[in-house]
Amino acid sequence: MPVISKSHEFDVSDLFVNLQPVFRRRLFLKVEGFNFAGSIKLKAAREIIAQAEASGVLTPGATLVESSSGNMGVALSMLAAGAGYRFVCVTDSRCNAATRRMMEAFGAEVHVVTEPHETEGLLGARLRHVEALCAADEKMVWLNQYLSAGNWMAHHGTTAPAIAKEFPDLDVLVIGAGTTGTLMGCARYFRETRPHVKIVAVDSVGSVTFGGPAGRRLIPGLGASRRPPLLDESLIDDVVMVPEIETIRVCREMTRHGFLFGGSTGTAVSGALTWLAAHHPDGDVTAVTISPDMGERYIDTVYRGEWVWDSFGSALVGNEVPGDLQVVSG
Fold first, then answer.
1. Sign of the CA dihedral 220, 200, 282, 293?
2. What is the spatial distance between Cα 71 and Cα 263, in angstroms, rounded to a whole number?
3. Axis crossing angle, helix 149-157 with helix 159-166, rounded to the nearest 10
4. Which neighbouring-strand residues pair with 113?
5. What is the C-alpha separation between 269 and 175, in angstroms, rounded?
6. In order of start, what are the domains of the chain with their CATH numbers?
7. Whole-model pTM?
8. Nearest Cα to Cα of residue 290 among 152, 159, 149
9. Beta-carbon neighbour count of residue 277 at 10 Å?
């Protein structure tokens, strides 16, 4: 058993779940939620802070500020607490209440944006709020996960090599797109080392990342209301767009087999299953996708029948709640 003195030193990076018994596909899920930040964002947060400190941009007494839909905010809150930095997270109304409370427990100051920018949605509004905070206080240091090379470098150096080591016969790697840090880091690694591996990106319907029309999105994590600056589509072989109701269906199906994963995981798995069914219906390939976080923070949304019904009732087949979700009247 390891003995640690700092919270970020513990991070399980070699756990994979075989999803074949659940979905009857040769699909493996890399689980990234077993660390004290609870998500894959710890990797990028560590690297971005380390680069900022090494370059002299981040010095003692500075106040970190970042825009986040949730997981990056938690990771930075935890790291800031351990390093003695003050941290301000700018999030929006889609951020789970449990996630906001977790950031505050670490000592972060959380600003919640409720009104979207007229053309760039809630993300655009969050970024403008960050810019205003920095303009008003010279001690504010914006780490900017949307532009920082540390965002993709973290996964180029850790996530991708771990997948390559475990699956020397890998055919397809399916990755959800948010800031695209994980996607770009892994895509670059496999382009350099195993160019035959197909790289498939998964995004939420309503996201504009890959040129689709903007639309309502209620589940935080994947997707964006403006194109991520880190994205290089030349590194991607295909894109799958997943409606959020399918995210919920897949999450619920995994719980029936004892696995409680987050919303982004449901989207990634749904996208992987869709792509595999269309391109390899015989199932004769090895595919891996990534679970960014666990499901506890989604108990009041993805796993709550009333929220699902209120949010997606018109999209449910036959107006029925999917699976074993229960709606309690009154």
1. negative
2. 12
3. 20
4. 92
5. 9
6. 7-35+153-310 (3.40.50.1100), 41-142 (3.40.50.1100)
7. 0.91
8. 159
9. 12
| Amino acid (1-letter code) at residue 143 | L
3-state DSSP call for residue 290?
strand
Query: Under 8 Å CB-to-CB from 173, ≥6 apart: which residues?
Result: 163, 186, 187, 190, 197, 198, 199, 200, 287, 288, 289
Instruction: Note the pLDDT tens digit of each residue in 199-257.
Output: 999 999 999 999 999 999 999 889 988 899 999 999 999 999 999 999 999 999 999 99
Q: How many residues does the chain have?
A: 330
Owner of token pair 């036959």: 318
